[in-house]
């Protein structure tokens, strides 16, 4: 008799997507020598071009055609590559050495010839149109061999996001003019506003705050900036960098000399070295979900392979950036894994943030995690990403993407941004006037905040581990926290609102409560750089190509809002002193109002978003959590040791009640000896 079986309803047989063209059946090359490899007697060049009928290597003295009076369009030498194993082409050149620039002419049956840079290049000329041979040892700064990743427990992790240009573009940053907006701005460790010595900026500021990890928006070579123009040329433009051109090459616009392919490498390493010396991890924002254009080096080298295509042959566009990388194709998966390993090994990067991770398949994400774990100290390299996409992509059946539905298939040490916490605190991300807990709808979202403080454990949003939960209320995308609060509470914000002038006390109080929730919640706290000094972009929600002046950190504003900066600094210190905040069991106190009260260890965390004093019975805090993780105490032993309201700390429980002032975040603790 046949046994009846019921398939597990949670099983995901594949992400819902549009039908895709099948992956071309090309051979897979497993070697580690794609690109240009410097040897004792020249350089060996290898590319993977299985559909090509021939490949020509062209060598140049410069990285672009405009760098010398001679015709730099004419190569100094050309070589024919020989067909080799698994679809690769190979040639060795005795006369190609460090600093030689090159590209390829790839021929195909039917007569098509594509000029292309090297997708596997590790160095490039200005604007990345020609690749460069590089001896990486010659790019190491002094002391690079002694550089080590900071050893920071995950319970102490505080992630602060910035753009390399935004960090120091402000002329009041205290950074010398020649280094503003560059990698080298991070090498100045004692800067202050206008150099006056009164308020720290840049790396000195991060050290003062206690930030333990800096997440840098993309700094691989991207395609939207003309690196050949001076930094102060208004035609040069500004961009966040989510448009990859050369994945394994640092961006040239952050270099003091974008024409020299080696300079940007050395200066990028110096940036990372300086942050490590300050005890700060470096997280690299990477974009392996799409490329700058459908006309890219991969499409020129291997047409029809690198990007997903709909069944009718058109490009899939789940990224809303014209194309999606086919991460599930074997050689693209290998490329992505190898690329991440390269940045971890060569540049000592401490972590990776995956843009639109919801477009990357779970097999590739897990392969990256496994490969990083195999490196010395690789288990401490961080991984997290956005578990969503902009639109529907195209997939072959059975492919599972790392979106919210696919998180259960990821290694538990791959984290994801928690938009449930973000939207509960501040309001809907796409509808600017829709409120959240702290912007006018506290009664509607109180239960969500209770779950958020516990990293959503016990709910449908629960993750495999609290370390997977990136808790935040603002990031580079969408409105800043301050601008969102202005949009909801003011409807038609004025310049005075954005500048946080008179009459903004309610918004400042809400900002403090938002930070209190994030920094004491289970999980990993994350913030947009400048959130702590009420950063504004004057209502611009997508400033990816807005002027640098709108995007840059305003260091005088930071000084002006020093009390708010000090408040964030004290929250970071509070979290560091209480490792249980990261993942310790919570006892969520049952209440029928807008106030949220949570007990973790011997601390009681209370959020009162209302305009009235509310009270919490101390007796209700005696209820033990599972396994008696929370001990019973005497009702009047509670003392307020931290408050978002000045001068309220040191208040004690009275008559078996904790008094919670209006619009406050407070922490209560048992201080007496038992």
Could you please describe the fold and organization of this structure?
The chain is globular and about 90 Å long. The protein starts with 17 loop residues before the first strand and ends with a strand. Helix 11 packs parallel to helix 14 (562-576). 50% of the residues are buried. The longest helix has 17 residues, at 330-346. It is of the alpha/beta class. Among the domains are: 35-138; 418-581, no CATH class; 586-670.
The N- and C-terminal alpha carbons lie at a distance of 66 Å
> What is the alpha-carbon Rg in Å?
27 Å
Q: What level of helicity do the residues show?
A: 10-25%
> Order of strands side by side in the largest beta sheet?
11-12-15-16-17-19-20-21
| Oligomeric grouping of the chains | single chain
Helix-strand category: alpha/beta
The outline comes out as globular
Estimate what percentage of residues fall within beta strands: 15-25%
Mean pLDDT: 94
Low-confidence stretches: 1-10
The number of E-state strands comes to 28
Largest sheet: 8 strands, parallel, barrel
Number of helices: 15
Top keywords for this entry?
Pullulanase; eight-stranded parallel beta barrel; hydrolase activity, hydrolyzing O-glycosyl compounds; PulA_typeI; Ig-like_fold; single chain; disordered N terminus; globular; five-stranded antiparallel beta sheet; alpha/beta
Fold topology:
Elements: E1 18-19, E2 35-39, E3 42-48, E4 54-60, E5 77-80, E6 82-83, E7 88-93, E8 101-107, E9 113-116, E10 131-132, E11 159-162, H1 164-168, H2 202-209, E12 213-216, E13 220-222, E14 244-250, H3 263-277, E15 281-286, H4 297-301, H5 330-346, E16 351-354, H6 362-373, E17 382-385, E18 394-395, E19 415-417, H7 419-426, H8 442-453, E20 469-471, H9 481-490, H10 495-498, H11 505-520, E21 524-528, H12 548-551, H13 555-560, H14 562-576, H15 580-583, E22 586-588, E23 596-600, E24 603-608, E25 614-617, E26 638-643, E27 657-660, E28 664-670
Parallel strand pairs: 1-18, 11-12, 11-21, 12-15, 15-16, 16-17, 17-19, 19-20, 20-21
Antiparallel strand pairs: 2-3, 3-7, 4-5, 4-8, 6-7, 8-9, 8-10, 13-14, 22-23, 23-24, 24-28, 25-27, 26-28
């Amino acid at each position: 008799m046949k046994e009846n079986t019921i398939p597990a309803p949670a099983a995901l047989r594949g992400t819902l997507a549009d039908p895709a063209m099948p992956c071309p059946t090309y051979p897979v090359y497993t070697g580690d020598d794609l690109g240009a490899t410097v040897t004792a007697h020249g350089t060996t060049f290898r590319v993977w071009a299985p559909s090509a009928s021939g490949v020509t290597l062209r060598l140049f003295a410069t990285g672009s055609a405009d760098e010398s009076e001679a015709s730099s369009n004419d190569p100094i030498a050309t070589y024919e590559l020989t067909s080799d194993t698994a679809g690769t082409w190979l040639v060795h050149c005795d006369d190609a050495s460090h600093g030689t620039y090159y590209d390829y002419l790839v021929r195909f049956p039917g007569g098509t010839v594509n000029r292309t840079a090297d997708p596997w290049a590790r160095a490039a000329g200005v604007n990345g149109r020609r690749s460069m041979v590089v001896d990486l040892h010659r790019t190491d700064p002094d002391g690079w061999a002694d550089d080590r990743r900071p050893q920071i427990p995950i319970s102490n992790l505080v992630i602060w996001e910035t753009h390399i240009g935004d960090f120091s573009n402000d002329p009041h940053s205290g950074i010398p003019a020649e280094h503003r907006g560059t990698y080298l701005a991070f090498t100045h460790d004692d800067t202050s506003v206008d150099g006056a010595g009164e308020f720290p900026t840049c790396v000195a500021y991060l050290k003062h705050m206690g930030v333990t990890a800096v997440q840098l928006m993309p700094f691989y070579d991207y395609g939207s900036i003309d690196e050949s123009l001076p930094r102060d040329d208004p035609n040069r433009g500004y961009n966040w960098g989510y448009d990859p051109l050369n994945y394994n090459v640092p961006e040239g616009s952050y270099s003091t000399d974008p024409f020299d392919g080696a300079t940007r490498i050395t200066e990028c390493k110096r940036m990372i070295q300086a942050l490590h010396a300050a005890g700060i991890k470096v997280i690299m924002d990477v974009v392996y979900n799409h490329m700058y254009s459908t006309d890219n080096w991969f499409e020129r080298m291997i047409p029809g392979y690198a990007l997903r295509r709909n069944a009718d042959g058109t490009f899939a566009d789940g990224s809303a950036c014209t194309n999606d990388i086919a991460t599930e194709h074997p050689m693209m998966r290998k490329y992505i894994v190898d690329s991440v390993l390269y940045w971890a090994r060569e540049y000592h990067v401490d972590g990776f943030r995956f843009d639109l991770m919801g477009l990357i398949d779970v097999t590739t994400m897990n392969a990256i995690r496994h490969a990083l774990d195999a490196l010395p100290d690789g288990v401490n390299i961080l991984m997290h990403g956005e578990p969503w996409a902009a639109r529907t992509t195209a997939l072959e059946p059975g492919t599972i993407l790392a979106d919210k539905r696919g998180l259960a298939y990821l290694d538990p040490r791959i984290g994801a941004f928690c938009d449930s916490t973000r939207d509960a605190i501040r309001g809907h991300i796409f509808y600017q006037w829709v409120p959240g807990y702290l912007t006018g709808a506290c009664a509607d979202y109180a239960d969500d905040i209770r779950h958020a403080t516990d990293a959503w454990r016990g709910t449908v949003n629960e993750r495999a581990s609290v370390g997977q939960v990136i808790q935040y209320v603002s990031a580079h995308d969408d409105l800043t926290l301050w601008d969102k609060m202005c949009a909801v509470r003011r409807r038609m914000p004025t310049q005075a609102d954005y500048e946080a002038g008179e009459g903004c006390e309610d918004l400042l109080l809400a900002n403090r409560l938002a930070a209190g929730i994030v920094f004491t919640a289970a999980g990993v706290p994350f913030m947009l750089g400048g959130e702590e000094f009420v950063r504004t972009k004057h209502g611009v929600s997508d400033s990816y190509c807005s002027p640098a002046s709108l995007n840059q950190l305003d260091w005088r504003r930071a000084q002006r809002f020093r009390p708010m900066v000090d408040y964030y600094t004290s929250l970071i210190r509070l979290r560091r002193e209480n490792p249980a905040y990261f993942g310790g069991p919570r006892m969520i106190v049952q209440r029928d109002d807008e106030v949220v009260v949570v007990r973790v260890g011997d601390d009681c965390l209370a959020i009162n978003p209302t305009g009235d004093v509310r009270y919490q019975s101390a007796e209700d805090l005696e209820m033990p959590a599972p396994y008696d993780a929370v001990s019973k105490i005497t009702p009047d032993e509670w003392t307020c040791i931290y408050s978002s309201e000045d001068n309220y700390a040191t208040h004690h429980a009275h008559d078996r009640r904790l008094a919670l002032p209006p619009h406050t975040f407070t922490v209560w603790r048992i201080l007496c000896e038992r």
